Structures are given as C-alpha cells and as structure tokens.
Amino acid sequence: MSAVPAAKEVATLGGGCFWCLEAVYDELKGVISVESGYMGGARPNPTYEQVCGGMTGHAEVVRIAFDPAVVTFKEILEVFFVIHDPTTLNRQGNDAGTQYRSAIFYHTPAQKAAADEVIANLTQAKLWRDPIVTEVTPASVFYIAEDYHQEYFANNPGAGYCQFVVAPKVAKFRQHFLAKLKK
Length: 183
Fold this sequence. Notes:
By secondary structure, the chain is of the alpha+beta class.
C-alpha cells in the first residue's frame, strides 16, 4: 500500500494493462504523477502474479495525481475513453480477465457525477456499436505495483508489448490531444 502523492486531486482508472495508461497520462499537461497499481479486490498486498492469476479481484489501475486548475477530471476521462475500449467486459485486446476491466474508481461524489455524465453523453452519442461496460465504483485501497512496472514503457520502449500495444495507444493519444501534451 502506498500513500497518496502530494497533489491537488487524484483519479484512479483501470483500462486494461496499466503500462498503457501510465505511458499516456505521463504526457498529459496538468498530470503531476502516475503510479501503476492494483485496486478493487479482496486480497491485501497482492502481487502482480496473484492479480494476473485472476484470484484477487483487483484491476490493474493507474493512480493519477493532477492539478485540476490545469486539467479537469472530465478531461482525464475524455482521454481515458479514447485510449481504451470501454465496451469489452474484462478484456482489452488480447488481455483477458477481470484484472483488465474498464473501471473508474471515484474518490469524491463530484468524480462519480462526472463519470456518470461522461458515460451518459458517450452512450447518447453512440460512438460504439456495443454498450459501455465501464464500472464506476468507489475507490478502495490502492496497492502500488512492483517497481519494475513503474514507468515500464519509458524504460522498455523496445519490448514487444510496448512496440505493438503501448506505442499505438500513446500515438493515438498524441493525435487526439496534441494541444494537451506536456511541453
């Protein structure tokens, strides 16, 4: 378990592999820090192997500390819904299991309201053929992932998963949100 970083606000999101989300949010203006970890399960202090085994109930998540004067929670969610598929239950691409579920773990009633509003707007816009299955649930204990998962894409850009899965998501983010990139 890790302490909440010094920040103005915190968002916790699960959208498949945490390496993808961390790589994207590291580049978003207003984001102070991004940590990969686990949330939403029953086992205290889970390991990566336990979470991947699907027996703990945790999702792979990122905890994003951000300055809401620079980037709002809604903007964080706008990015979230562009960089992952919110219509596949317990799956992102070839990654399958509850640990890869689409989830917004809200920290305040305002975050819950914003998440519900964004999902309702996206549902009404009918951007996807299938319904959004993103769970919106209260944040629980955050367990920071092992050190080798932190900044994984930055430290392993040549790894196969990074080249074929993470890099395209980062490129898609840059394309859609060019004006919101850190300098």
